[in-house]
Amino acid sequence: MKFDTMKLMQVYEEVLKENPKTREQGYIWLYLAKVLRKMGFKLFIDIEPSMPSPDSIFTIRRKILNGKSKSEEEIEIINQKRKEYHHKNKERINARTREYGSRPEIKVRTKERKKEYESRPEVKERTRIRKKKYWQVQEVKDKKNVERKLRYYDDKEYNIKHRSKSLLRSAFKQYSKTGKIKASCKYGIDYKAIIKHLKPFPEDIENYHIDHIIPLSRFDFNNHEQIKKAFAPTNHQWLTIKENLEKGNKLIMPH
Asked: In sequence order, what are the residues at sequence separation of 6 or more whose Cβ sits closer than 8 angstroms to the Cβ of residue 46?
C-alpha cells in the first residue's frame, strides 16, 4: 500500500500538537491509531493483520485510565453518568444491538464462538457443577415439580411422553439385567412417533392407560432390537383403566 508522504507528515504534526504525550513510550500505539484514523484508515488490518484496531486500542486505554488513574469518587461519577446515558438512550441502544446481532456474519461468528467456548473441558465441568447445585436448591425443585404437575394435566402430548418414559423405566427395572443405561433415542425409541400414532387423544385422558399390545414382558430388554420393537408406535393403544387391568400381561390383538 502506497502512502502520501506529505499527508503523513502533516497528520503527524497535527497529532503531536494535540497531545505531545502521544509520542512518549507506552503511548506509541495510541499515537499510531490517531495518525491512521486522521488519514482515513478505519482498521490497522488494512496494513498489518496482526495489529489491533484503533477502536480496541482506545477502549483498552479508557479501561486503564478509568481503573487506575482515577479516584474511587471519579470512577463512581463516571459509572453513574454511563447508567444515566444508557437509561435515557435504552431504546436506541437496544435497537442498535439487535440490528448488529441480526447480521448473518455476526450470527455465524457468535454461534462459532459459543460452540468453541462451551466445548472447553473446564467450561463443561463448571457448567455441570453449576447445574447440579442449581437443581439441588429446594425452592427450584418445588417450582419444577409444580410446573410438571400443571403441564401433565394441561398438555396431553407431555402427558403421553411422561407416561411412556415411566413405562420404559419400569420395564427396564423388571426385565433388564443392567437397567436403563442410555438415552431413549439410542434404543431407537421415538416419542414423537408414539404420540402421533396415539392421536386422537381421549377427551377424558385421565381415565385411560397407554397399553402395549404385545406386553413388555414378552420382550428381551437386554437386546436393543427387542426394546425398539417393544416401543414401536404400532405397539401402543388406548385402553380404559378397567380394560388394561383386566388385560394384564395377556396378548390380546385388537380387532
From this structure: 1
CA 57 vs. chain centroid, Å, equals 31
Beta-sheet strands, E only, within the chain: 208-212, 236-240
Q: What is the pLDDT of residues 118-140, one digit of tens each?
A: 999 999 999 999 999 998 999 99
- Which stretch of DSSP H or E encloses residue 193? helix 191-197
The dihedrals phi and psi of 209, each to the nearest 5 degrees, come to -115, 150
236 has which bridge partners?
A: 212
217: left (phi over 0), alpha (psi -120 to 50) or beta: alpha
How would you classify residue 157: left for phi > 0, otherwise alpha for psi between -120 and 50, otherwise beta? alpha
* pLDDT at residue 46 in the model: 46
**C-alpha cell at position 177:** 439385567
Cα–Cα distance, 105 to 113 (Å, whole number) = 12
Domain boundaries, the chain: 1-79, 150-247
